[in-house]
Amino acid sequence: MVLPNILVTGTPGTGKSELCRRLVEQLGLQWRSVSEIVSENKFVEEYDEEFECPVLDEDRLLDYLEPLMQHGGNVVEYHSSEFFPERWFAAVYVIRCSTSLLYDRLQARDYGKHKIKSNMECEIFQIPLDEARDAYRKEIIYELVSDTEEDLVTNVQQIRDWLEQWKAKQNKAQ
After folding, report:
1. For the chain, which domains are there?
2. Most buried of 4, 82, 87, 139 (most Cβ within 10 A)?
């Protein structure tokens, strides 16, 4: 059985990477960190000085990911979601966290003031969640809070449960 692809998205610092790390360890999924893929393959159009980050070449990234997505079993991690084709994903998980924790996490990453402010606004105004809601069917979108270790454990279990339900549906369909 081909496993589904899952998208994990959310504001930087909300806990996406740690969740993906645990999903890979516990569920045997293949982690596709878009930031790492972009960096390794230089899928960058330019550098945005104001936001202190590279500007993604979406077309080159999507061309790279297309054959990987066809194999299934991927957990794709990125802070943005709207440009990925819906057909790639059986579930989209939007990771959220409290703004006080997020602020501390971003400061610990040595983000500049402007970058912290921008990311804080993204979380406050739930930009990643709204992006997902605009780009994907509501029945595949799940919002998870990632403030504590307990939240992280619960989130992994929730995704594990979802995956088991997905497998059961696939077996019935065959």
Report:
1. 6-148 (3.40.50.300)
2. 4
CA angle at residue 21 from 20 to 24, to 5 degrees? 85
Tell me if 94 sits within 8 A of 141, measured CB to CB: yes
Q: Global pTM?
A: 0.95
Residues annotated in a binding site: 13, 15-17, 109
Residue 101 CA, distance from chain mean position: 19
Phi, psi of 67 (to 5 degrees): -65, -30
The β-bridge partners of 64 are none
Segment 17-43, tens digit of pLDDT? 999 999 999 999 999 999 999 999 999
Annotated binding site for ATP: 13, 15-17, 109
Token pair for residue 36?
């790492």
Give the amino acid at 78: Y
